[in-house]
Amino acid sequence: MEPKKVLYSAIQPTGIITIGNYAGAIANWLKVQDDYTSIYAIADLHALTVRQVPQEFRQRALSFFAQYLAVGLDPEKSVIYFQSHVPFHTELQWLLNCYTYVGEMTRMTQFKDKSQKNADNINMGLLDYPVLMAADILLYQSAFVPVGADQKQHLEITRDIAIRFNNLYGETFVVPEPYIAKQGARIFSLQDPTAKMSKSDPDPNAAVSIIEDADSIMRKFKRAVTDCDSVVEFREDKPAISNLLTIFSAMTDRSVESLVNEYHDLGYRRFKHDLGEAVVERFAPVRERYLKLMNDKGYLSEVARQGAERAGRMAYKTVAKVKRKIGLVQP
Ligand code: TRP
């Protein structure tokens, strides 16, 4: 039997994990945990490219880790770990830096965007961010990386670096491909249905977290923007209600069509109320497991330690191979 291919993903511990992240990506990860050797990292080193308040940062990173477990990623099946616990990431980053051109990095759209937003802190990490991401992916000989539109360019440069290295030294890295989920809903902001629901939207009413309490979820759906008329219909010129229908469908596995049949003439108020309840119901067990996990820091650190150990064993092999190929003296 062929060994399973590696699927790699990471999330920065900033903002909140939203129901959009869930519907667009995480729900699918849960389904493919048996099909791939899946690796899920908390990309805490990437998050350092913008200033973090140490106490909050530590708490949020741990919270994200607990949310991964609470939502159903299984540490027996998948490798779940903190990027900063495996020093090979930054080691490979350095090695790959020497095969990456400054011009390639200054041209990255995200670098340009973030430089504008953080004009007072355009640090080397911000510039080198894509190489750390390339190291993340290439360390594990990953075949697939699920990426949204905003990370596509980073995966492209990862492929370029891998191919460049392979051409110089012979087959060393698996060249990763974007992973396109078989199904996945694109969910937009509750306050602006033309913008993707973002984990770091400054407007707290724009996004719902997967561990949010019931009252707050109900309130946010009540306040969700709607379109001018009051008919529940999925139509291009009704982006707000269409978005809410997408969410309702993703959370209940009911088709948009059957929801429209039921709610067409019942008005937005009733629709949003029932949608809120469906979301509450869907995530209540996640929230409950999450709160339990956060009360058991010993368990969390043990799972994190085991994850880092497994990741480290895989990563070590790649770094050793790279060093040998480059011509560093074997230790
Ligand atoms: N840069 C990604 C983001 O902000 C997070 C990330 C870090 C990542 N390393 C990765 C994603 C490796 C996929 C693979 O969304």
From TrEMBL:
Any one cellular-component term (Gene Ontology): cytosol
Keyword Membrane included in the entry's annotation: no
UniProt organism field: Candidatus Stercoripulliclostridium merdipullorum
Protein localization: Cytoplasm
SUPFAM superfamilies: Nucleotidylyl transferase
Span(s) of short sequence motif 'HIGH' region: 13-21
Name of one Pfam family that matches: tRNA-synt_1b
Protein name from the UniProt record: Tryptophan--tRNA ligase
UniProt keywords, alphabetically: Aminoacyl-tRNA synthetase, ATP-binding, Cytoplasm, Ligase, Nucleotide-binding, Protein biosynthesis
Residue spans crossing the bilayer: none
Gene responsible for this protein: trpS
GO BP: any one term: tryptophanyl-tRNA aminoacylation
GO MF term (any one): ATP binding
